[in-house]
Design a protein that fits this description.
The complex is a heterodimer of chains A (about 180) and B (about 475).
Chain A: E1 12-19, H1 22-34, E2 40-43, H2 51-55, H3 62-88, H4 105-127, E3 151-156, H5 164-173, E4 178-183
Antiparallel strand pairs in A: 1-3, 1-4, 2-3
Chain B: H1 2-7, H2 25-37, H3 42-68, H4 83-107, H5 117-137, H6 164-197, H7 201-211, H8 218-251, H9 263-289, H10 298-329, H11 332-343, H12 347-359, H13 367-370, H14 373-400, H15 415-438, H16 444-450
Helix pairs in contact in B: 3-15, 4-5, 4-8, 4-9, 4-14, 5-6, 5-9, 5-15, 6-7, 6-8, 8-9, 9-10, 9-14, 10-11, 11-12, 12-14
Classes of the chains: A alpha+beta (about 180), B mainly alpha (about 475).
């Protein structure tokens, strides 16, 4: 498999192959992974159990984003309450110290949950590069079934191992019921 | 029927199948997308007309309140809180079942939740909207709630962070925000389904905009599933904290009947109890009206009834514990408050509460009762009534006999008390009517994922058991 010449511009986005069952796409993903492709993806109507492994994906980095924002939320809660109650406008309430931190725990907790949840949602969208309202795959008519009951593998022309004929053969041998070129 | 269900086993897990009917992904899409794509039946228009009329009543009641002040309610000295805060706690509590179903049952890997979680989460958001409107209006001074926000203002003052009322503001508003995020994340793949089926340009653009360009990528699903797990993990302690904080509003007061350490767990159990009753009421209607009987099966109703039996019994235990502690503590004021609850002027409300909340769910010990649809409907309504009365009893009976007998009084709701309460149902039901019309009310992607054929190691057709 020789790499494509760098000067040659890819005429298409790549190939997309349709599969009819979760079992079929599971086996096909293992084949594409083992063939050494890098710029490819599987598309399914629901998360297929074990497909991350079949594709050889690394674990998501999302928990770290969420953790950082949760800690940021907690720090915000602590600083906000300390500054407003003990520095900016100190008031004696029920004979308690100005910085009576046990009373501040509920708000610190709630703000850390808010931070963690925002981190999970917006971090997920960031890692997925969403919203992305247009994508070349949406040009393929059959691809509309990806949110219903069909399963797809897309291999991008930008992949170093991409070769329209050979890649098509690989997908067909993996059990695809339909293989089409995606226009760029 | 029960036997037919038992024989129809899941070929992988050898348990009763969670989804009846045709076992295909497309069948799920068609069944769930139907109510979003059809011309709604006359019944939907009637439901919407009635709900939005009530919503109009809510608007009128609030407008008159702002014009005239809280004097239009039956409040007096010492009963400064009555329907307003009762309704607030009632609605917040309703919301909790949605989070329980979407988060806690998810962490416990209860796959049956997928049939009902979307609608329950929607219910949570609408219930929190109703709940938040009451603290917003209950002082009759709608231009002042900004006092609760930690923003610099002309007085140079800040919220009092040692007050449970401000904890409550943070807890409930963050609960609403996180519930909305959780719900929306769950909706993204299903909105993409509706987008891909859209027949008109307007639908394509509207659903396409909110679907964010979702293309079912497994690289996306990986982060998506992780986000869902994190949200579930965060929402679980959040939901427990929210009703605990709501109970602190009362528990940190000195008033006998409020000053009780068992309030947080007791309030949380009551919240889940009332919320499940509301989910049950709504789901029993939806499964019939929208033809979703094969997705929301007797099996799901049976499990919801079991949770109602458990939480109802916890609530009953809490009522007993309150009395025991009042007697065991030998504090005259405390004992008087509880004896007065059961035998005083509000005894009718107290016994309504006990009858609806403790006695009526006891029929759910029997499997026949847990799968009898008319009975489930009636009991779920009883529980809704009982849980409203629980909050009314806690708030009003504790206030109406305070330390000074000369200020004892009795609260009678006025027309405006009732119209505001009934009107809040208008807001809730209008939102729910719009939800079932425009959004998929069952989480399609999640239901598909629990079908036996969704397992990549399932070899169709497995008809041998």
């Amino acid at each position: 498999m020789k790499p494509k010449a760098a000067t040659e511009r890819p005429k298409s986005f790549g190939l997309v192959a349709q599969f009819d069952t979760p079992a079929a796409i599971f086996r096909a993903c293992e084949k594409v992974r083992d063939a050494g492709y890098l710029r490819w993806d599987a598309h399914t109507p629901f998360p297929v159990h074990g497909l991350d492994k079949a594709m050889g994906l690394k674990p998501s980095r999302l928990p770290w984003i969420s953790l950082v924002l949760a800690l940021g939320g907690a720090a915000t809660g602590l600083l906000l309450q300390w500054w407003t109650s003990a520095v900016e406008y100190p008031l004696i309430i029920s004979g308690k110290p100005y910085f009576s931190w046990p009373a501040f725990v509920p708000v610190i907790f709630e703000l850390s949950v808010l931070g963690g949840a925002a981190g999970a949602v917006f971090g997920m969208l960031f890692l997925n590069r969403l919203p992305q309202l247009y994508h070349a795959l949406f040009r393929v008519d059959a691809f509309a079934k990806v949110t219903d009951d069909k399963f797809f593998i897309s291999i991008e022309a930008a992949d170093p191992r991409y070769d329209e004929q050979k890649t098509r053969k690989l997908l067909e041998s993996a059990g695809a019921s339909l293989v089409t070129v995606v226009e760029a | 029927m029960a036997q037919a269900v038992a024989l129809d086993l899941d070929p992988i897990e050898a348990r009763p199948q969670l989804i009846a009917g045709e076992q295909s992904f497309n069948a799920i899409t068609e069944a769930v997308a139907l109510p979003v794509e059809w011309k709604p039946p006359l019944g939907w228009w009637i439901a919407l007309a009635l709900s939005s009329s009530l919503l109009g009543l809510f608007g009128i009641s609030i407008a008159y309140l702002f014009w005239e002040g809280t004097g239009i309610w039956g409040l007096n000295n010492p009963i400064f809180w009555a329907f307003d805060i009762t309704n607030f706690v009632f609605w917040v509590g309703i919301g909790h079942a949605g989070t329980l179903i979407s988060a806690i049952l998810f962490l416990f890997r209860q796959k049956w939740r997928t049939s009902i979680n979307r609608a329950a989460e929607a219910m949570t958001i609408f219930a929190v909207m109703c709940a938040l409107s009451f603290p917003g209006i209950h002082v009759g001074r709608p231009w002042l709630p900004y006092y609760m926000f930690p923003i610099p203002n002309q007085m140079g003052m800040w919220p009092q962070f040692r007050s449970p009322l401000i904890w409550d503001f943070f807890a409930v508003s963050i609960y609403g925000t996180v519930s909305l995020l959780f719900w929306y994340v769950g909706l993204i793949p299903d909105l993409a389904t509706i987008r891909d089926r859209a027949k008109t340009r307007v639908r394509q653009l509207a659903y396409g905009f909110f679907a964010l360009g979702w293309r079912g990528s497994n690289r996306h699903w990986q982060n998506y599933e992780r986000a869902y797990l994190i949200l579930a993990g965060l929402a679980t302690p959040l939901v427990l904290s929210v009703h605990s904080v709501v109970s602190f509003d009362f528990a940190t007061a000195q008033l006998p009947g409020w000053h009780t350490t068992i309030f947080p767990p007791y309030f949380v159990a009551g919240a889940i109890f009332s919320g499940f009753a509301m989910v049950m009421t709504l789901m029993l209607i939806c499964r019939v009206v929208f033809g979703l009987r094969h997705i929301i099966q007797p099996l799901h109703l049976d499990r919801m009834a079991k949770i109602m039996l458990l939480t109802g019994t916890i609530v009953g235990y809490a009522y007993g514990t309150e009395f025991f502690i009042a007697w065991y503590g030998q504090n005259d004021y405390e004992l008087f408050a509880f004896v007065n609850r059961a035998t005083g002027p509000y005894a009718w409300a107290y016994w309504t509460m006990v009858g609806c909340n403790v006695l009526s769910p006891q029929v759910f010990w029997f499997k026949k009762a847990r799968t009898c649809i008319p009975l489930l409907f009636v009991i779920s309504i009883f529980i809704n009534i009982g849980m409203w009365f629980e909050r009314f009893v806690i708030i009003t009976t504790s206030l109406h006999r305070d330390f000074l007998p000369s200020s004892w009084d009795y609260f009678r709701p006025t027309f405006w008390d009732l119209s505001t309460f009934v009107g809040s149902f208008g807001l809730f039901l209008t939102m729910f009517c719009l939800f079932v019309r425009f959004l998929p009310m069952v989480a399609m992607a999640e239901v598909k994922a629990i079908l036996p054929i969704a397992n990549p190691h399932h070899h169709a057709p497995a008809k041998t058991h």
